[in-house]
Amino acid sequence: MSKRDYYEVMGLAKGASADELKKSYRRLAMKYHPDRNPGDAAAEASFKETKEAYEVLSDERKRAIYDQYGHAGLDPTAGAGRAAGFGGADGLGDIFGDVFGDIFGGGRRSRSGVYRGADLRYEMALDLEQAVFGASVNVSIPALRTCEPCKGSGAAPGSGTTSCRRCGGSGNLRVSQGFFSIQQTCSSCGGSGQTIEKPCSSCQGRGRVQETRTLSVKVPAGVDDGDRIRLSGEGEAGQNGGPPGDLYVEIRVRPHDIFERNGADLSCVVPVSFATAALGGSIEIPTLDGEVTLKIPAETQPGKVFRLRGKGVTPVRSSSVGDLYCRIDVEVPVHLTPEQKRLLKAFNDSLSVDGGDHRPRSDSWRDGVRRFFSAMNS
C-alpha cells in the first residue's frame, strides 16, 4: 500500500510554515493518540502516520529532499536516500520531549504509568443568607477512590507484581516503520512496567473503586455567585502512586424573595401606599441583620431610591461593607368600594380647580409631547 503525501497527512499546503506544521501536529496528535483511543487500530495507524510525516517535514534537510524526490528520496535503500546521508533510526530521537510532551505532561510521566487523579467539579446552591454570613454545608461526592484492601496497587493482599513480559519492564514499546522508530506506552501494563499476579477482588485490579464520600465544606462569609472553593486532594485518586486531584466547589446563589445582590451592594423594591408617598411617613425595612425604620418624605415620587449605608454585604475578598438601595414603588389601590371611588374622583377634580402645580411629571411630559409634535409638523 503506497504512503500518503506527508502534506496531505498534516492537512497543509506544501509551503506551510514551521509554526503551521507544529500547530497541525499538536492537533492531530491529540486527536489520534493511543491513550485517548484505547483499542482503536485506525486511530493508532493515523497517529503513526502523523508522527512520521511530522518527523520528516519538521527537519529542514529531510523536508528539502522530500519536496524534491518524494518518499523515494527518504528510502535508505535508494540512491537519493544514501546520498543524503540517512542512516538508521537512532539519529531521529524521541519527539515527545519537545512537542507532544507539552500536551500530555511529558514523556516520563506517561512512561512511568504514574498519573495524578482527575479534578472534580461540584455545583453548590446556597441561600443568600448562607453566602453572606458563611456556612458549613455537607456534600456527597461520587469519585474514584484508592482501593483500601490493596492500597491502590491492584494486587490481591499477599500477592505482588511481576515484570511485564511484553515490554520487559520498561513500560515502553518501540515500533519500527521503515527507518523510523516510534516509542509508545505499553498497552499491557499501562506504562508501569509491572503486571499483577492476582488482581484484587475489590477493585478487579484497577487500584481504584467508585465511592461516594460526604464532605463538610466550609463556605466563607461573603462569597458570591460564580465563586469557587478549592478542596485540595479531594478529587479522584491518582494511579500507581500518583497524587489525588482537587475538588472545585462552584457557588450558585439562589434568587432571594426580597433582595438582589450586586457585588457588595443589595437592592430591594419597597411598596408604599399612595397616601404615605403623598403625605410622608415611616415604614419598616428588612435588612440581613434586622429591621430598620425608613422615613418617607412627603411628595415622594415612584422610583425614588433611598440608600441605607452599611446594610449591604462584606465581600469575601474585601473588608468594606456595601449598602442597601431601596426603590420606592407606589401602590395603586385596587378593589375600591363605590364610596372610595367617589372620594378619589372628588380629590382628583380638586387638583384641577385650585391652580396648584400638583403634577410636576405630568405637566413636563405634556410639554415634551407638544414640542415633539411641533418639531414633526415644522
What is this entry, summarized?
With 378 residues, this protein is of the alpha+beta class. It has helices at 6-10, 18-32, 41-57, 60-69, 79-83, 101-104, 107-112, 128-133, 274-279, 338-353, 360-377; strands spanning 120-126, 135-146, 161-163, 172-177, 180-185, 194-196, 208-219, 228-231, 247-253, 260-262, 265-272, 281-287, 290-296, 305-308, 324-330. The strands form 6 sheets. The protein has a 4-stranded mixed beta sheet. A 3-stranded mixed beta sheet has the order 1-9-8. The protein has a two-stranded antiparallel ribbon with strand order 2-7.
Low-confidence stretches: 78-111
Average pLDDT, all residues: 82
What is the CATH superfamily label of the domain at 6-105?
DnaJ domain
Instruction: State the CATH topology of the domain at 6-105.
Output: Helix Hairpins
Secondary-structure-derived class: alpha+beta
CATH uppermost class of the domain at 6-105:
Mainly Alpha
- How do the strands line up in the largest sheet? 10-11-15-14
Give the proportion of residues in helices: 25-40%
Care to count the β-strands? 15
The string of secondary-structure elements, in order, is: HHHHHHHEHEEEEEEEEEEHEEEEHH
The major pleated sheet works out as: 4 strands, mixed
Rg measurement, Å: 37 Å
User: In what range is the share of β-strand residues?
Assistant: 25-35%
Distance between the termini: 84 Å
Protein described:
This protein has 378 residues and is an alpha+beta fold. Among the domains are: 6-105, Helix Hairpins, CATH 1.10.287; 117-155 and 212-255, HSP40/DNAj peptide-binding domain (Sandwich), CATH 2.60.260; 260-330, HSP40/DNAj peptide-binding domain, CATH 2.60.260. Helix content is 29%, strand content 25%. The chain contains eleven helices and 15 strands. The strands form six sheets. A four-stranded mixed sheet has the order 10-11-15-14. A three-stranded mixed sheet has the order 1-9-8. Strand 10 and strand 11 form a beta hairpin. The protein is elongated, with a radius of gyration of 37 Å. It starts with 5 loop residues before the first helix and ends with a helix.
